[in-house]
Amino acid sequence: MSDIPPAGAQPTVAEKIFTFVDERVGLKLLAAKMLNESVPGGSRWAYVFGSILLFIFIMQAVTGALLMFYYVPTADHAYASTQYILHDVDYGWFLLSYHFWGSTAMVVCVFAHMSQVFLWGAYKKPRELIWLVGLALFALVMGFGFTGYLLPWDQRAYWATTVGVEIMDKIPIMGDFLARFLKGGPTPGQMTLSRFFVIHVMVLPAALIALAGLHLFLFRCAGPAGPFRGAPAELKAKTDYFFPRQIWKDVVGMAVVFACISAMAFWEPVVLLEEATPDPGDYHPEPEWYFLFIFQHLRLKMFSGEFGQFLGSMGLPGLLGVMLMLLPFFDRNPERNIFKRPFALIGWVMLTASIILFTVSAIINREFLD
Amino acid sequence: MQPQLKSKVRCLDREVGEVSRVIMDPLSHEVSHLVVSMNGAGERQVPMGAVQAVTDDLVQLRTSSSEVMGMQPFKREDYVTIHEVEIPGLEKHIHVTPGEVLVPFPELERNVKRRAFFANLTYVTGLFIGLPLVYPVMKFLMKPMYAPLDNGWLKVGNIGKIKTEDVGTQFQYKRKIKEVYMPEAEIEKNVWLVKATPAVLEKVYQGKDREFLDSSGNAIWTNKKDLPFLAFSGKCPHLGCAYKWRQHKVLGQVFLCPCHLSIYDASGKVLDGPAPRPLDMLPIQVTAGGEVQIIDMEFKAGTKSQTRIV
Ligand code: HEM
Ligand code: FES
Question: Is the CB of B273 under 6 A from ligand 2?
Answer without folding.
Answer: yes
